[in-house]
């Protein structure tokens, strides 16, 4: 009796790999991805292997496969002894598909390893592409987990509060601030056409200024303009330019205007917050940064109607690693078990939140999802969290 096994991989990661090879046709991708699930559904007793589980627990996954196939498992099963592409093939057609001409680089990563390995993503997808992929085929991927997601669904259902970091979790802060800073460098260069420094020189100096001037995580209570004025003043002085009041005011305007123009939500962020509020969940933002800047950012992004509480290090005068989460729980009388916190930085979001007894979701766009520990999840897109919350709300799970 044939015992087929279907390997299912996160469609966001798959299309990211497609784009790396120059394959950018989303609709062809959707056809291929759905075709796999049609075969799966047509199989009498489908055995599904989640690729992300395979790379995180190769031994356990392959051992389960050996048991399914009723063959002896040994650790040699985890090593690739034969040349890549050395398959048992069913005729000329299969040989042509699997051993014929393939695009350069298609299997480069696989060929360089002798064991199952995990890889970071390429980061090539736009927010619109991620939203489109998750809307079209993301459901299929999550449903492939079946009852293995049960503990995750139960945990999310129990949470009355959802907390978020702001920068690089709900919006593209690094990219946005980089655009704004570049406009400042251009303005400085335009004002000093005879100066020898290049844009790259100004950028390198500004990185040093940022490292030295943001170490306190904005806990001293100043406004965003105070911080920016200080940084631009140091940048000008480092290159021998006078930081006059007029010059600094001009640079502040340049920076803020470019910042506003470049503000971009993360894929699925707005829809996720809308769904959370529609389901009666409380939404709290706990973030590092000047209070006025974070309030301005939330308003400009259109997120204000969906946020119940905004807490910044600037307001509380504590950084995330110095007790901010505990202070927030005490101030707003939220039990640690009532909150799940989503952030993009393991050191500044996840570790201190967990130390305060809060369940967490690491938002890491270039990594695989991890659902093994429902108290410490990892997701690579916000639409996945939205879908899990929606499934919890409706109390159903479509296999």
TrEMBL record:
<dbReference type="GO" id="GO:0016791">
    <property type="term" value="F:phosphatase activity"/>
</dbReference>
<dbReference type="GO" id="GO:0046872">
    <property type="term" value="F:metal ion binding"/>
</dbReference>
<dbReference type="Pfam" id="PF00702">
    <property type="entry name" value="Hydrolase"/>
</dbReference>
<keyword id="KW-0378">Hydrolase</keyword>
<keyword id="KW-0479">Metal-binding</keyword>
<keyword id="KW-0460">Magnesium</keyword>
<dbReference type="InterPro" id="IPR023214">
    <property type="entry name" value="HAD_sf"/>
</dbReference>
<dbReference type="InterPro" id="IPR023198">
    <property type="entry name" value="PGP-like_dom2"/>
</dbReference>
<dbReference type="InterPro" id="IPR051400">
    <property type="entry name" value="HAD-like_hydrolase"/>
</dbReference>
<protein>
    <submittedName>
        <fullName>HAD-like protein</fullName>
    </submittedName>
</protein>
<dbReference type="InterPro" id="IPR036412">
    <property type="entry name" value="HAD-like_sf"/>
</dbReference>
<dbReference type="InterPro" id="IPR027417">
    <property type="entry name" value="P-loop_NTPase"/>
</dbReference>
């Amino acid at each position: 009796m044939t015992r087929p096994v279907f390997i299912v991989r996160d469609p966001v990661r798959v299309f990211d790999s497609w784009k790396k090879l120059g394959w950018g046709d989303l609709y062809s991708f959707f056809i291929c991805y759905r075709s796999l699930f049609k075969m799966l559904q047509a199989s009498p007793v489908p055995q599904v292997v989640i690729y992300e589980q395979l790379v995180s627990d190769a031994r356990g996954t392959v051992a389960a496969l050996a048991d399914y196939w009723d063959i002896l498992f040994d650790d040699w099963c985890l090593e690739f002894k034969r040349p890549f592409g050395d398959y048992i093939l069913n005729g000329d057609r299969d040989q042509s598909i699997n051993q014929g001409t393939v695009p350069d680089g298609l299997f480069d990563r696989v060929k360089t390893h002798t064991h199952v390995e995990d890889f970071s993503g390429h980061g090539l997808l736009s927010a619109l592409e991620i939203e489109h992929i998750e809307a079209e085929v993301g459901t299929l991927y999550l449903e492939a987990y079946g009852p293995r997601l049960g503990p995750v669904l139960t945990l999310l259902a129990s949470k009355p509060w959802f907390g978020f970091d702001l920068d690089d979790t709900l919006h593209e802060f690094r990219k946005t601030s980089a655009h704004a800073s570049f406009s400042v460098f251009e303005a400085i260069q335009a004002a000093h056409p005879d100066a020898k420094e290049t844009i790259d020189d100004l950028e390198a100096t500004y990185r040093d200024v940022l490292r030295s001037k943001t170490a306190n995580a904005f806990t001293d209570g100043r406004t965003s303009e105070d911080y920016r004025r200080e940084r631009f003043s140091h940048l000008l002085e480092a290159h021998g330019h006078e930081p006059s009041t007029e010059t600094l005011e001009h640079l502040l305007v340049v920076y803020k205007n470019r910042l506003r123009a470049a503000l971009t939500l993360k894929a699925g962020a707005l829809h996720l917050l809308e769904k959370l509020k529609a389901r009666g969940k409380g939404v709290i933002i706990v973030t590092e940064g000047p209070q006025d800047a974070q309030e301005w950012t939330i308003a400009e992004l259109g997120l204000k109607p969906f946020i119940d509480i905004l807490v910044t290090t600037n307001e509380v005068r504590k950084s995330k690693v110095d007790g901010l989460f505990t202070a927030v729980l005490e101030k707003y009388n939220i039990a640690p078990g009532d909150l799940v916190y989503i952030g993009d930085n393991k050191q500044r979001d996840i570790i201190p939140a967990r130390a305060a007894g809060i369940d967490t979701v690491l938002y890491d766009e270039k990594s695989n999802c991890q659902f093994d520990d429902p108290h410490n999840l990892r997701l690579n897109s916000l639409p996945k969290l939205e879908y899990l919350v929606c499934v919890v709300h409706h109390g159903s799970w479509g296999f």
